[in-house]
Amino acid sequence: MARHQNYIAGRWVPADGGDYYQSHNPACPSQVVGEFPRSGAADVEAALASAGTARATWNQTQAPQRAAILLRFSQLLMDSRDELARIITLEQGKALCESVGEVTRAAAEAAFAAGEAVRLSGQTFPSERPGFTCYTVLQAIGVVAAITPWNFPVVSPVRKIAPALACGNSVVLKPASLTPWSAVFITNLLEKAGLPPGVLNLVIGSGDCGEHLISDARVRGISFTGSTAVGIRIAETVAPRMAKVQLELGGKIRQSSWSAKIWTVRRKRSWQRLSYAVANDARRSAA
Amino acid sequence: MIVEESQADPLLEQLKIHMVKIRVGNGLDPQTTMGPLVSQGQMETVAGYVRKGLEDRATLVVGGRPLVEDPCAEGYFYAPTLFDHVSPNSALAREEIFGPVLPLIRVHSPDEAFEVANSTRYGLAASLFTDNRHLAHEFIQRMESGMVHINHGTASQAHVPFGGVKDSGQGAFSIGPTVKDAFTNVKTVYIKW
Fold first, then answer.
1. Does the pLDDT at position A260 exceed 50?
2. pTM for the predicted model, two decimal places
3. Rounded to a whole number, what is the distance in Å from the CA of B47 to chain A's nearest CA?
């Protein structure tokens, strides 16, 4: 059984307090899948300091270079798809075919984000006064905190990290404490892809780490997926300092069927498709 | 799942067929199509919603229990669960269960269906299955939802905006080009030489 670490300023380091917790396989809870740091305020502080130092250099890195690193990351995700899918299933439980699909999707989103790095274009405007040039540019916001859930332990972090990095921000990632192994693996791949030290920092621990992150004035953007209650608290916490929030919160997916009988006559498999879709959504998430 | 009364019974039969086909087990087994819940806490949450459904007099059709038989003897396995005659005002209909529990709500008109569909505090995704194009466009307009689907379950693509409204979020700002709104600031420049 492996003991994993935080990733701060380009180094794999233990939590400041030296504490670890065990993560278990939900299909077989007696099986420990790994030991992970129980981080605290000092670890969050180190990660924020690292992200704060790295942000200027990363922001000045030319956008095509940022894109190239993210494209390599996308390719590494595909190269290690089977290994990472197995990790997802071991720590989160979902069927292996779904885990494979999740990694494939994460690679596609990373590739799209890479392209966005070179599409950070502003607009030009005609001036009402002669001799003026008027235009807008898009600028990185600074340090971004990514706080991610357990239902999609790979695609959710990638969905936040990749576009944040593409836009020139540095990131502190705090994954769900139930599914930290996937986050360790992703971070390793970004390191292999050539991401400079400090641009991405990984802090593993309980919700307290997230609280420290959202409360810190150096964090200029927070991307969070999870419960509505926590999302509201994040928005309230950061409002006085005008930090940006990107919130993917709770859901109740609604499926309605109407006049499908006629449709059935025309397309024989319609009931099957409808019932499969409904059963599938109920099986997965946010239903 | 919201369905017109006259179509509910045939849909229920199809749903039963599909839910019984779901192979629950260890996710590493290639035969498995649904793994366990993520934790003991989540098991208790899902079981709690099933209890509430029974208390609210919904009809349990399939499942409704933890799975303890081999190969699910150990682990947080819960049976795919289907309820019929669910009240639109009940917890099953309105709250996020985050488990394999499908509530079926019977309605009598499209207006009632749309009203029920909009009656949750969430607004992530909604689907309509129909051959009626007029109704489909009305559904697209009226749904208080970040994402709407016609004749398809919840979909998501790697370059298309994703996200919800109401208590589900601030709109479709995840995935796709809209992420730039979240991760950049717009700076306006005026130059006069």
1. yes
2. 0.94
3. 15
* Structural domain of A101: 6-250
A104 and A129 both lie in a single domain = yes
Confirm or reject contact between A229 and chain B (CB < 8 A): no
Regarding whether A170 and A46 lie in a shared domain, the answer is: yes
Token duo for residue B126: 């909604």
Do residues A271 and A282 touch, judged by C-beta distance below 8 A? Answer: no
pLDDT along chain B (193 residues), means of 10: 92 90 93 94 96 97 91 88 96 93 94 94 93 93 94 90 94 88 96 92
Please indicate, yes or no, if residue A199 is contained in any of the structural domains: yes
A34 and A153: one domain? yes
Domain assignment present for residue A1? The answer is no
Question: In chain A, how many domains are there?
Answer: 2
Determine the Cα–Cα distance for residues B64 and B46; give it in Å rounded to an integer.
9
Judged on CB neighbours under 10 Å (0-12, 13-18, 19+), B81 is: buried
Instruction: State whether A153 and A61 are in the same domain.
Output: yes
Q: Are residues A171 and A273 in the same domain?
A: no
Residue B4 to residue B109: CA distance in whole angstroms = 7
| CATH (domain of A128) | 3.40.605.10
- Give the pLDDT score at A140: 98
Residues of A within 8 A of B101 (CB-CB) are 282, 287
pLDDT above 70 (res A275): no
Which residue did the predictor score with more confidence, A78 or A282? A78
Tell me how close the Cα of A120 comes to any Cα of chain B, in angstroms: 8
Which residue among B97, B131, B143 places its CB closest to the CB of A259? B131
- Asked whether residue A259 is assigned to any structural domain, the reply reads yes
Cross-chain CB nearest to A279 (options B15, B95, B124): B15
Domain B1-107 has CATH 3.40.50.150: no
**Whether residue A280 sits in one domain with residue A215:** no
- Cα angle: A250, vertex B115, B62; to 5 degrees: 65
ipTM of the complex in this document = 0.94
* Contact: B125, A254; criterion CB under 8 Å: yes
* Tokens 């540019």, residue located: A137
Angle at A121 between CA A117 and CA A124, to 5 degrees: 175
Q: How far is CA B23 from CA A93, A95, A269, in A?
A: 14, 10, 22
